[in-house]
Amino acid sequence: MHALINEGAARGDMLPRSVNSLYTHLRDMTVAAEGDGLVGCCGLSICWEDLAEVRSLVVRAEQRGLGVGRKLVESCLSEAVTLGIYRVFTLTYVVDFFRDMGFTVVNKDILPQKIWADCLNCHKFPDCDETAMLIEL
Ligand SMILES: CC(C)(COP(=O)(O)OP(=O)(O)OC[C@H]1O[C@@H](n2cnc3c(N)ncnc32)[C@H](O)[C@@H]1OP(=O)(O)O)[C@@H](O)C(=O)NCCC(=O)NCCS
Best substitution site from 14, 60, 68, 70 to test ligand 1's pocket, by max atoms within 8 Å of Cβ? Predict the structure, then answer.
């Protein structure tokens, strides 16, 4: 999972994750697998009582366009509902993908919890070039 995410980060598709961050948040991750191989992954991180984030979404390059990414995000959204969390956001470069899934573009200012928790430690802060998107479930 670390290699898959960091290959995506090296291409500029997403932010990198450290091994430590992945272990710390391992229970956040949903994975798609084929046999023993990892096809994709996506995380759902709880940020606040009513707010969670979809993050670290990636599908192996040769298996894209088959609906895996959509299923991973749907699984995370379904988990949010099960947890009673009805607002889910993402910070992304694939705006059209998330728009297709029902997310809308929002101002990052409405996500202060994310900024306190993660953005302050991001090497891009304060010049974030990702788009904030939110879905109300
Ligand atoms: C974005 C990504 C996860 C999509 O995974 P995928 O398995 O190829 O997506 P799906 O096959 O489930 O596609 C679902 C829909 O989104 C569309 N879509 C897929 N990738 C897209 C993209 N990069 N931009 C816009 N739309 C996209 C598909 O056309 C499809 O539409 P349809 O249902 O009308 O056919 C994958 O392209 C990827 O891993 N990209 C690199 C990492 C990345 O950008 N992660 C997002 C970080 S926030």
Answer: 70
CA distance 45 to 25: 8
Structure token digits, residue 36? 């023993």
| CA atoms of 16 and 118, how far apart (whole Å) | 13
Ligand 1 lined by 92 (C-beta under 6 Å) = yes
CA nearest to 91, candidates 120, 111, 71, 66: 111
- Both structure tokens of 136: 């109300």
Q: Are 104 and 124 within 8 A, CB to CB? A: no
The number of the ligand 1 atom at minimal distance from the alpha carbon of 64 is: 8
Tens of pLDDT, residues 116-136: 778 888 888 888 899 999 999
Q: Answer whether 56's CB lies under 8 Å from 103's CB.
A: no
Q: Which CATH class is domain 2-136?
A: alpha beta
97 lines ligand 1 (CB under 6 A): yes
**Strand 29-34 versus strand 87-92 pairing type:** unpaired
Whether the pTM exceeds 0.85: the reply is yes
